[in-house]
Amino acid sequence: MMNSDDKLYRTFIEELHALKEFRLTYALDHPASDLDLDDPAVKRIIEVLAFFGARTETATLRYNAANRLRLYQQFFPYLLSPLPAMAIVQAKPTGRLTEVLEFPQDTEFALQPEKGGLAFFRSMRQLRVLPFGIEAVKLEMLPAAGCRLLLMFQADYPLNEHPGRLSLYINYLNDFVSSLKVFHYLKRTLRNTRVQFGGYDPECAGMECHSDFDASGDGIETDEWRHPLEVERDYFHFPQQALYLHLELPPAPRNWKKFTVALECSELWPRKYQPNKDLFQLFTVPLSNSRRGFSEPVLCDGTQERYSIRHPHPESGFKLQKVLGVYEITEKGMLPLRPGLLAGGNGSYEIEQDTMQADGGSLFRLLPHFPEAFEQPRTLAVEALWLQPWFDRQSKNSYTLKTLHRQTVGVKWELTDNAETHVENQQINSSTGFLHLLTLMHKTCLSGQDVRDLLQAMGSVSSGRFRGVLENLNGVRLEEMALGREQHYMTKQTYYLKFKTEMDDSLELTETFAEHLNRMLDLWIPDAVVDVLIEKADEPSEFLES
């Protein structure tokens, strides 16, 4: 990639050639003029003019690009913000754990790689750790049809604490596609869940136990920082965060030491996947390499148009992920400034995204609107989420992991697999793409190409685990019908997806892709009820759009 100095030099050479051609043309039209290139003074003047023209052109292009990115940030901050590194952490109780440990959402973890500084992660939902584990997983065939999966839990000593809600992370040999197949099998066939405290008796029915696969337990609904489309971007970036089976256990008897959860499924267990006790992992929580905090104070004195937004601890390698708010520091406290998109003018601000840095991440600048700041300087602070792009290079190395600001005795922390590295959205990099996205915002229905463009604009679909599904998408067919007055005269739009090939080993991946595309389109088209279905190969496809 050409750096700024190379671009400036290339532009300077182009300007120099243009001025030399102009001098020759002028000399032919005006022979009496004394513009000899061999004259050192003329040569220096031409070089100065060429350099001035090159600097002016470079500054203009940079200014136009900055204005474009500012518009992007104003309209689509939820699409442009980088996605942080993510992982699943598991708390493994040891014999020293004698109490229940509660970890609220946004608990901070410090990960120390073998090389480099500390990487800071925060939990995406709350976690409750008790001193017991999964002893075994057994499979029984049912007389009529289907099977029964027995999850046997064992404590080291009698407990009186109620297990409550257990969130089991489904992880088959750290393979996402295999784990997704097991997850879909359970979601499709699980018809009854029961629990027995004490020894397992196959003749005993046990107590009913509520089970669900709802991903909202990951803190999505209570996260005040994320746009709903950001939730979908996060999912496509790190889909493992949704592979959870949640069990709501009934009250336990006193001094219990073991219990068994029986999952009755209406179909036979898939032969390809051997049940084992590591398939269902207890006490796990998704982590995000994203930290909330304030920037270095910015002194706005009217001598600059823009100010770099920097973390107060640059040695930790933090880069800005997303601005949450800008505040003026006064004697009475912190007063929030208005975003320029909502209301411009005095007392507002804009955010400008600069080019990518060599060490990862982009440099962001603050543009405060305070015309009187030259006479009355103001101190500003930016509250933001920060990530650490340098961790990508250390994500596969050995590490030590612990909770920050809290000592935990009797628990060992481990990542279930290597962390997913952070992603920068490089899809919307032109004015044409930005204007096209603005056009899509005001469309009442989308074509097949529109759907593909929207998926590309997310930035995490084409670079993540669903990339193959997106490449396999052959076309989209739309059926639209009007709804009645009870539905406020909205329309129902059904998008049928057609794929180039149908592969049995990726069916669950395709179905999951369609499910989350449904959520995306439902958010993008507010005046319609959206449904996304997969069209079978034997169905007519003459109306499909490539």
- Count of spatially separate domains: 4
Give the N-to-C terminal Cα separation: 33 Å
Counting DSSP H or I runs of 4 or more residues, the number of helices is: 9
* Largest sheet: number of strands, sense, barrel closure: 6 strands, antiparallel
- Low-pLDDT residue spans: 541-546
Q: Helical amount among residues, as a percent range?
A: 10-25%
Q: What value does the average pLDDT take? A: 87
Radius of gyration, taken over Cα atoms and rounded to an integer in Å: 30 Å
Q: What portion of residues belong to β-strands? A: 25-35%
Based on CA inertia axes, which overall geometry fits? elongated
Order of the strands making up the biggest sheet:
25-3-4-15-1-26
- Secondary structure: number of strands: 29
Structural class, from secondary structure content?
alpha+beta
Protein name: Type VI secretion system baseplate subunit TssF
Organism: Candidatus Methylospira mobilis
InterPro entries: T6SS_TssF
Short recap of the structure:
With 546 residues, the protein is an alpha+beta fold. The protein has helices at residues 4-29, 40-75, 77-80, 176-189, 228-237, 431-441, 448-458, 467-472, 507-524, and strands at residues 86-93, 101-103, 108-113, 119-123, 127-129, 132-141, 147-159, 165-170, 190-197, 207-208, 210-212, 244-248, 256-265, 280-281, 284-288, 291-294, 298-300, 307-308, 319-330, 333-336, 338-339, 348-356, 362-369, 378-387, 399-403, 411-415, 473-482, 491-499, 528-534.
